[in-house]
Design goal:
The protein is an alpha/beta fold. It has two domains: about 180 residues, Glycogen Phosphorylase B (Rossmann fold), CATH 3.40.50.2000; about 150 residues, Rossmann fold. Helices cover about 40% and strands about 15% of the residues. The longest helix is centred in the N-terminal third of the chain and has 19 residues.
Length: about 350
């Protein structure tokens, strides 16, 4: 089987959860006899470059419009690859739709990772445009993969006509080698991972930790530097010296999970929530907002609090510190495996 993936996510991000998802599948495809190709002339994506050599596009330069130029260049490559037809399955990596005529009858697959654009379109950068694009992609696709049943339910709320062509395939977790001493923090901390965009409800995490003894800090990984509004929040809560931010390598991140008191994940909406199972893989208890997706993925090996309720979140964090939370959190990982995800994806391609 020959799978062609387009350039979209690999033109837009050096790191992203979606690009990682595809590269995890590619890694498994290599062992399962599936030939895969990504239609890029250039890419700065670190996950993709670890699997195949793609020249970087002005990697040391940052300027307005750089990604758009790269997208247009790689779109030419994608159109050429579609015209050549040297593939059995086309799997698009993001929301922009493709004219069915370009595929010449070949199956067209998409993965809908979440419905945040539909839910928050007017508030997100390019949200309305990407919602319209995703709507068209869903209409044109032969098959749609969702990473959780909660996401499938969201999808069918907005697009009930897609029910017959949609399946659920869970993500997996891949634990890197973690060298001894690759990450260390001298004071105890709770961990927050990823974007702090408005629907992630980062302020609830800050407010909850502010209710705990002063020796506990909130350690944030990824998501960019703190904004002026976030710094004002820290000052107002007397948390300026208790909230830290770093960009960590993957081994360092897993070491941070291993040493954290707990993971705090207060998001209103997720499609899967990879940090939940990453934390569990290291024996770190996730403290999660009580949403259908988190209940599905975290199961009874996590602790939950009502949305936006910082006081309830703080109480769950205290229960972790008191040693009376959940046990054997790593048992939840039996449900999540990239090899299984790849095999199920291949079977869906065949269907």
């Amino acid at each position: 089987m020959r799978v062609l993936c387009d350039h979209q996510i690999f033109s837009s991000f050096a790191y992203s959860g979606i690009s990682r998802y595809f590269c995890e599948l590619f890694t498994e495809f290599n062992d399962l006899g599936v030939q895969w190709n990504v239609s890029c002339f250039f890419s700065n994506n670190k996950f993709l470059k670890s699997l195949k050599h793609y020249p970087g596009f002005l990697p040391e330069q940052n300027f307005r419009g750089k990604n758009r130029i790269l997208e247009n260049i790689n779109l030419v490559k994608t159109r050429c690859a579609l015209a050549q037809g040297d593939f059995d399955i086309f799997h698009s990596t993001y929301s922009k739709p493709y004219d069915r005529k370009l595929l010449k009858g070949k199956p067209y697959i998409i993965t809908v990772h979440d419905l945040t654009h539909e839910k928050y379109g007017a508030k997100l950068p390019s949200g309305l445009r990407e919602t319209a694009e995703e709507k068209e992609s869903i209409a044109r696709a032969d098959g749609i993969i969702c990473p959780s049943f909660a996401t499938r339910d969201d999808l069918l709320t907005f697009y009930p006509e897609a029910a017959e062509k949609t399946t659920v395939i869970y993500h997996g977790v891949r634990i890197p080698d973690v060298p001894e001493g690759c990450f260390a923090e001298s004071r105890p901390y709770f961990l927050y991972v990823g974007s702090r965009m408005f629907y992630k409800d980062f302020p609830t995490a800050v407010q909850a930790v502010a209710m705990l003894p002063a020796e506990y800090r909130l350690f944030c990984v990824g998501g960019g530097s703190f904004t002026a509004a976030e710094k004002e929040l820290f000052a107002r809560l007397d948390m300026t010296d208790r909230v830290l931010h770093k960009q960590l390598s993957e081994p360092e991140l897993f070491a941070a999970y291993r040493n954290a008191a707990a993971l705090i994940f207060p998001s209103e909406a997720e499609g899967f929530g990879l940090p939940v199972i990453e934390a569990q893989s290291q024996g770190c208890i996730p403290v999660l907002s009580d949403t259908p997706c988190f209940r599905e993925i975290g199961s009874d090996k996590a602790l939950y609090f009502p949305l936006h309720d910082a006081g309830a979140c703080a109480e769950q964090l205290k229960s972790v510190l008191n040693g009376t939370p959940v046990a054997e959190v790593q048992q939840n990982l039996n449900r999540f495996n990239w090899r299984t995800a790849a095999r199920e994806t291949i079977e869906f391609y065949k269907k």
